[in-house]
Amino acid sequence: FKKGKLRLGDLRYFPSYRTRQWKTEAGTLTPHQLFAIFAFATCGGYSGGLRLSVDCANKTESDLSIDVAFAYPFRLHQVTFEVPTCEGKERQKVSLIGDSSSSAEFFVTVAVFAFLYSLAATVVYIFFQNKYRENNRGPLIDFIVTVVFSFLWLVGSSAWAKGLSDVKVATDPKEVLLLMSACKQPSNKCTAVHSPVMSSLNTSVVFGFLNFILWAGNIWFVFKETGWHSSSQRYLSDPMEKHSSSYNRGGYNQDSYGSSSGYNQQASLGPSSDEFGQQSAAPASFTNQM
Questions:
Q1: Which residues, in sequence order, are CB contacts of 51 under 8 Å at separation 6+?
Q2: The pLDDT of residue 29
Q3: What SS3 state is found at 215?
Q4: Do 91 and 85 form a contact (C-beta atoms < 8 A)?
Q5: MARVEL domain: which residues (predicted)?
Q6: pTM above 0.85, yes or no
Q7: How far, in Å, CA of 110 to CA of 107, rounded?
Q8: Cα 81 from chain centroid?
């Protein structure tokens, strides 16, 4: 294959990255890079909002379009907006509840670093393969980093899934309406005009767990490139070779068993015919003397 370009059939030349490489028109990309991009783009680039309506008994005090906007990193307690109190011209300042910035920022950070490492590893493996395999350091580093990123993807995706659940609860229009004093009066009518769209955030969680499956599934392929795998193969093969050689040396060798250790009937079952003849001659001579 041409240097710097990969075809689908060329994947067999990259055993430790066989699940990572594919060719696109823009150049060489990997599933690790694409999934990481989708993960941090759908989460880090999110901005949404909801719209509420407060219809006071006194129509002049009503506000039928109250917009509440929020975005990444979801520090919802810092999101404030003003609503009518339906008690004159006085307005109430309300803020959302919750802070999911830690889980969201951790998730995006893992995605960004996973993308950068995957990009760097692909470049090293393609253009500096001799350096990669020198002293077995490249495969060992790759194996350790792959295990670490698998763990980080699992933790980050789980934390962000919990954080997203908190964001959905905090931005639920029914929950937000409960924060307004005007909505606690039966004479006023409070409604939700539209709710926030969370489809991209749901997608980010899905891509987070897909990244975990992708990195965790690649651990075996990377492990096969390390010296640990070859040494374990030798360790398993040595006892088998010793067992087979000892079986050939001390096993049932029929030729030697029949020639040297067989049943020598003449030696073990009794005296020979000559000896038997000499023993029978003694009584005969004794008879002649008589």
A1: 65, 66, 67, 68, 192, 193, 194
A2: 58
A3: helix
A4: yes
A5: 20-227
A6: no
A7: 5
A8: 42
The span from the CA of 9 to the CA of 21, in Å, is: 10
Cα→Cα distances 8→22, 143, 288, Å: 6, 24, 109
233-282 per-position pLDDT tens digit: 554 444 555 545 554 554 444 444 444 444 444 434 444 444 444 444 44
CA distance 111 to 113: 6
* Cα–Cα–Cα angle for 78, 82, 86, rounded to 5 degrees: 145
Q: For residue 187, what are the contacts with CB-CB under 8 A and spacing of at least 6?
A: 56, 57, 86
* Run of H or E including 92: strand 91-95
Tokens 């901005």 locate to 47
Does residue 82 contact residue 93 with C-beta atoms inside 8 Å?
yes
Helix (H) or strand (E) segment spanning residue 29:
strand 27-29
Other Cβ atoms closer than 10 A to 156: 26
Q: For 150-169, write each residue's pLDDT tens digit.
A: 999 999 999 999 999 999 99
CA 180 to chain centre: 45
- H runs (alpha helix) in the chain: 31-44, 101-127, 129-133, 137-170, 173-177, 199-217, 219-223, 227-250, 254-259, 265-268, 273-289
Amino acid of residue 152: L
Q: Name the one residue in this structure whose structure tokens are 């029949």.
A: 258
Q: Is 48 left (phi over 0), alpha (psi -120 to 50) or beta?
A: beta
Q: What is the mean pLDDT of residues 134-140?
A: 79
